[in-house]
Amino acid sequence: MAAYVAKTLGRTLRTQNVSLVAEVAGRGCGRTLSTEAKSSQSQGSERSRWSKWLLFAPGAITFGLGTWQIFRRNEKVQMLEYRKKRLDMEPLAWTGSPPSDEDLNSLEFRRVLCDGVFDESRSVFVGPRSRSVSGVTENGYFIITPLVPTTSNWRSVQSPVLVNRGWVPRSWRDKHLEEMGDAEKPDNLKPTKDGNERRSSSWWFWSKKPEPIKNQEPVITPVKVLGVVGGSEKPSIFVPSNDPSASQWFYVGVPEIARACGIPEDTLYIEDINENASPTHPYPVPKDVNSLIRYSVMPQDHLNYTLTWYSLSAAVTFMAIKRVKPKKAQR
């Protein structure tokens, strides 16, 4: 009897111990799972917080671009006022040597008067450049010619000056190049007139009076140029590089053009603005003074860009707020 009671009591204790161990193990696993759940929940909430902040990044970026356009507009207004003020000054009579960098900066956008002679044989054509007349667009080129000194005029320039004489159509350029090519040929290679001049009649031979030998030197005509001091253009990434060896000029590079013309690289460069064009010689067409003042992007354009960026910033910020704002529970 005693043995039976002891056996039964042992079984009961073992069962209680197993239950206690299982309960302790269950509590430990529960605590571990609860800790992991809380950790993953905190990480998820942190990621959600960062993703919400990222929704406002486009609005901040577009707002910054709009503010930058305001600063650019103010700079353009100041630069336009500077150019207008310089162009309103009295023209300078230029007879000096090539200016230094400091002198060139002080002459920028100043009107100058230059006397000299155009060296047509060293003209350079930059282009193509389009020009619209009465709604019709025509391709052409800017012609840049060295203005060289002349000894017959004491007011003449003392060193060559590069002059952008204005725009010419393609047909005018082709004709000019043809004439320059013929002028460089020897006399025995130049085209002659009709063969009627070589009549073999003895009567014509003896009756023809000898003609005096005429001077074949070209007539040099001094010119007075009113221009604005300028500089090299800044081409975009889409404009090809100049090729002086092939006489292809896509943009105005003053040192390159001066080197191709055989004159110093620091030669003064001016843009002709003389409006007294001859009806018999309509080309080249000088530049308009207003075109020298203008920028490709004017202050009004910057203002339009500002309104665009600010409107876009307001729109994307509003969308971000709607996305972040918690929705009301439906009843």
UniProtKB/TrEMBL annotation:
InterPro entries: Surf1/Shy1 (IPR002994), Surf1/Surf4 (IPR045214). Its main location: membrane. Keywords: Membrane, Mitochondrion, Mitochondrion inner membrane, Transmembrane, Transmembrane helix. GO terms for cellular component: mitochondrial inner membrane. It comes from the Eukaryota. It is found in: Membrane; Mitochondrion inner membrane. Residues 178-200 have a biased composition (Basic and acidic residues). The keyword Membrane applies. The keyword Transmembrane applies. Residues 178-201 are annotated as: Disordered. It is a multi-pass membrane protein. It holds the Pfam family SURF1. Probably involved in the biogenesis of the COX complex. PANTHER family: SURFEIT LOCUS PROTEIN, SURFEIT LOCUS PROTEIN 1. Belongs to the SURF1 family. This is SURF1-like protein.
